[in-house]
């Protein structure tokens, strides 16, 4: 099973700003969320490894989860990093122009200035998912990431068009589970919150 965990809350999340590659840290609520998820996941004895995005908010969440597994080390995989919103990184959601939101929702190749397209995000996340299949067939692997990669992984599991990502919501510290033990991946849970 691939167990995806979205990082805990940051000040930018609280302020309703795009984070992307802004390397924000968890706030006090985010730390509590990470501890709650860690305590919950520690009841899964099949977990073999914890992987994280390279961004601090994900690594902090992963480290707090790892403490519940006896202080395991956390592997970093750059493919799980959040999408790069380019010039829109750090902006309040309401300050992003409507035509930009529309482009993101309708054109997977749309690339904001200095940023990354959803098409590129999907390629790297889907490759990261494929790379975990063999290991996650017999054990559980926890991956701590971000909203866009987790939605992309869920679309991969469903065999759905990546645009389905824009029709779903994923809260901070939410869990998604993908069963890869069969012939096709299966999305078991989405936006599981504690």
Overview of the molecule:
This protein is an alpha/beta fold and 194 residues long. It has one domain: Rossmann fold, CATH 3.40.50. The chain contains six helices and six strands. It has a six-stranded mixed sheet. Helix 2 crosses helix 3 and helix 5 packs across helix 6. The mean pLDDT is 96.
**What Rg, in angstroms, do the CA atoms define?**
16 Å
Strand order of the largest sheet: 3-2-4-1-5-6
Task: Give the H and E element order.
Answer: EHHEHEHHEHEE
Coarse morphology: globular
Main β-sheet description: 6 strands, mixed
Number of helices: 6
Mean pLDDT rating: 96
First and last CA, distance: 19 Å
Low-confidence stretches: none
**The CATH superfamily title:** Phosphoglycerate mutase-like
User: What class would the helix/strand composition place it in?
Assistant: alpha/beta
Strand tally is 6
- The assigned CATH architecture is 3-Layer(aba) Sandwich
Domain module tally: 1
Layout of helices and strands:
Elements: E1 2-6, H1 11-14, H2 28-41, E2 47-52, H3 56-67, E3 75-76, H4 98-106, H5 118-138, E4 140-145, H6 147-158, E5 175-179, E6 186-192
Helix pairs in contact: 2-3, 5-6
Q: What would a concise description of this structure say?
A:
The chain is α/β, with parallel strands linked by helices and 194 residues long.
Keywords, separated by commas or semicolons:
194 residues, alpha/beta, 6 helices, globular
């Amino acid at each position: 099973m691939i167990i995806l965990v979205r990082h805990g809350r940051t000040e930018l999340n609280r302020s309703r700003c795009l984070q992307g590659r802004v390397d924000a840290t968890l706030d006090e609520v985010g730390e509590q969320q990470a501890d709650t998820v860690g305590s919950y996941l520690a009841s899964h004895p099949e977990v073999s490894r914890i992987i994280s995005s390279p961004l601090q908010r994900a690594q902090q969440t992963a480290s707090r989860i790892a403490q519940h597994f006896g202080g395991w080390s956390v592997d970093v995989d750059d493919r799980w990093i959040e999408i790069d919103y380019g010039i829109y990184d750090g902006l309040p959601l309401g300050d992003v122009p409507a035509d930009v939101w529309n482009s993101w929702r309708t054109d997977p190749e749309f690339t904001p200035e200095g940023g990354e397209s959803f098409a590129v995000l999907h390629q790297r996340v889907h490759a990261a998912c494929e790379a975990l299949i063999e290991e996650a067939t017999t054990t559980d692997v926890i991956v701590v990431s971000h909203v866009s990669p987790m939605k992309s992984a869920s679309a991969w599991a469903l065999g759905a068009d990546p645009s389905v990502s824009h029709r779903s919501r994923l809260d901070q510290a939410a869990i998604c589970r993908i069963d890869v033990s069969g012939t096709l991946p299966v999305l078991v849970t989405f936006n599981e919150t504690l």
